[in-house]
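Possible regression after last week's pipeline update?

I re-ran a chain I had predicted before the update to compare outputs. Posting the input and the new output here so someone can diff against the archived version. Not blocking, just want to make sure nothing changed silently.
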Amino acid sequence: MSRAVQQIPKDQFDRLHGAYNQALSSKNRMTAIGLFILLLLLASSFVGSEVDVHKFLRNIWRFPNYFYEITPKLSIQNFFGDVAEWFWGINKWLRQLGETLLIAYVGTITGVIIAFCLSFLSSRNMAISKWSQIFTRRLLEFLRTVPEIVFALIFVVSFGLGPLPGVLALTFHTAGALGKLFSEIIENIDAKPVEGIRASGGSWFHQVRYGAVPQVISNFTSYSLLRFEINVRGAAVMGFVGAGGIGQTLIEYIRKFYYSDVSAVLILIIATVMIIDTVTEKIRHAFIGTLER
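New output (post-update):
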C-alpha cells in the first residue's frame, strides 16, 4: 500500500534549512566560546594556586607506590598466619571503631534534633516572623560553612582530647547542613493542611505538628540516615586531630610508617562504611514505602 509523502516547496525548504544551519552554527559558536572561557579559567587557577605540573608528573608514581607499600605480603603456605599477623590489633581496632560509630551516631541524632527545630523557623512558609527566619538562616549558614575538622580543633582546645569534641563538631555541622535541606523540604509542602489548621484557630505549633510534619517526615528520615553515613567517615577523619575514635590510631600509624597496620585499619573503616551504606539504604526505602502506603 503506497502512501503519499507531502513535500514543502523548495524555497520554503531552503529558508528553513538555512535557519536551521544558522541556529546550529550559533550554538556551536557559543559552545566553543564556553570551552575557551573554561580552559582560560582553568589555566588561571593553575597559575593562581601555583600548581607545579612538572613536580606533579615527577612524583605521581609515589601515589600508587604508597598503596603497594601498605599491601601486606601474604604467602600461600602460611596464609592464615599472615592474615592473623596483619590484623594483630583487631580487638583494639574494633573497640576504637565502635567509639567512632558512637561519635557519629550521637552527633547525628543531636544534629538532626537541632536541624528539625531550626528548619521550621528558617523556612519561608512556616517561620514565626521575618526576623526569626533571617537570624535562623544566618545561624545555619555559619554552622554548615565551618568544616567539621575546624570545629573539632576548637573543641579539642576547649575540652581536651577524646570523643566529646568529635560529637560536638558533628552535631554543629550536621545541624547546619540538614537545617538547610529540611527548610527547603518544608517550603515545598502542600499549604492547604497548614492553612486549614490556621483557619480553625490552631496555633503555630499545631500547624507544624499536624500540617507540616506528616508531609516531611519521610524525607527528613531519608536525609538523616544519609547524613549518618557521612558522619561515620567524618568521625574517622576527626580522630586525626585527637577527637576520639579510630582516626587517632590511623594517623599515628601513618606518621610512624606502619604500612601494614595502615592498610588493616583502612580495610576495617571501608568495610564498616559499606555495611552501613547498605543497611541504611534498605531502612530508607522500607521506611519511605511504609509511609507512602
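Follow-up from reviewer: compared with the archived run. The CA atoms of residues 87 and 264 lie 6 Å apart. Marking as no regression found.
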